Amino acid sequence: MSMSFDQYMKDMVQPMRDELTRLGIQELRTPEEVEASLPDAKGTALVVINSVCGCAAGQCRPGVSQALQHDITPDHLYTVFAGQDKEATAKAREYFAPYPPSSPSIALMKDGELVHFIERHQVEDRSAEEIAADLTNAFDRYCR
């Protein structure tokens, strides 16, 4: 019995998607969903660029989870999955200039404008607790 590569990847990636959607984070899987959500999001929006890499599993997703336990959180929670939903990820990255594409990464937007960004190198060299602290500081500053 053989399984297609696409089906294999969907099966392997689903738990990584679920780790964020269980937190109430909405997946944006198409460029149209990104366009309908990011530029017109009133208030604050967190956008997690998810990834299959180890630093996404060990630091990024746990850090986001911890940060969302904070008293102050963004109004909107979104995620795109790099390498899986490629067109949606590319569309989302258009809003993160001047930062180059990196995954995992985390963006905080306010009224459609980028106000805080955590790049991959800031994920892979820090613990989940440090990432959560970075995010909660940004939430305190921008989400009030």
TrEMBL record:
It comes from the Bacteria. InterPro entries: BrxB/BrxA. Belongs to the bacilliredoxin family. This is BrxA/BrxB family bacilliredoxin.
